[in-house]
Amino acid sequence: MTITATELGVVLLIAIMTVVTLVTRFGGVFAMSFVRISPRIESFINTMASSVLIAIIVPMAFSGDAGAIAALSVTAVTMLLLQKPLPAIAAGIASAALVRYLF
Questions:
Q1: Do the beta carbons of residue 74 and residue 99 sit within 8 Å?
Q2: 32-85 pLDDT per residue, tens
Q3: Which has more pLDDT, 1 or 26?
Q4: DSSP 8-state code for residue 2
Q5: 72 and 57 in contact (C-beta within 8 Å)?
Q6: Distance spanning both ends of the chain, measured CA to CA
């Protein structure tokens, strides 16, 4: 099945992605409602979240452009200094935009 890049096609793709996201989110909560959350399971869930984040960030650090590397660096430093994710994310986005604007 192919979907053309018309306005209707884009709206259809967004709708499909919305449904898939909702099904996976609610499906995960539903499936986990049958699992007793022991300290071992909680540790696994916390570790998996970090692993997914690292799997996304590390390739960008090695093969990203100057904007991506600046965003990663500024976000990490800001997070270490402030210990707050929202300002760190905002600083990373701003630094990527600035580097891409200048270069």
A1: no
A2: 899 899 999 989 988 888 888 889 888 988 898 999 999 999 999 999 999 999
A3: 26
A4: -
A5: yes
A6: 40
Measured CA to CA, the distance from residue 39 to residue 87 in angstroms comes to 31
CA–CA dist 60, 67 (Å, integer):
10
Please answer whether residues 74 and 92 qualify as being in contact, where contact means their C-beta atoms are separated by less than 8 angstroms.
yes
With H, G, I as helix, E, B as strand and everything else as coil, classify residue 6: coil
To which residue do tokens 């995960």 refer? 28
Residues 70, 75, 77, 81, CA torsion sign: positive
Query: In what helix (H) or strand (E) does residue 100 lie, and over which residues does it extend?
Result: helix 85-102
DSSP 13-67: HHHHHHHHHHHHHHHHHHHHTTS---HHHHHHHHHHHHHHHHHHHHHHHHH--HH
Which residue has 């965003």 as its token pair?
Answer: 71
Q: What is the pTM of this model?
A: 0.58
Q: Which of these, 53, 92, 85, 86, lies nearest to 71 by C-alpha position?
A: 92
